[in-house]
Design a protein that fits this description.
71% helix, single chain, mainly alpha, 85 residues
């Protein structure tokens, strides 16, 4: 192998033209697009986690309210009202 070949390979590596990225080389358009997609998906997951937490809290509050309030059908019977037919 000649020294010129090695120098050409080093230059190609540093410029990112060989397989793998060279240290300090600017990312390719494909890499930037994938990084953007990852960032978008991470934001979406964060929003979904917030929605899930909101729904969990809402369900807990609804359960607490249902436990405190008597149901309308049981309340009428407990007050001594008769079923009229």
């Amino acid at each position: 192998m000649s020294a010129i070949t090695i120098l050409l390979w080093q230059k190609a590596y540093k410029s990112g033209r060989l397989e793998g990225e060279a240290t300090g080389a600017a990312p390719t358009a494909e890499v930037r697009a994938l990084e953007q997609q990852v960032a978008d998906l991470q934001r979406l997951v964060g929003k979904k986690e917030e929605q899930i937490e909101f729904l969990k809290k809402t369900a807990r509050l609804q359960e607490q309210q249902n436990a405190v309030k008597p149901s309308p059908s049981s309340g009428a019977r407990s007050r001594g009202k008769k079923d009229v037919r």
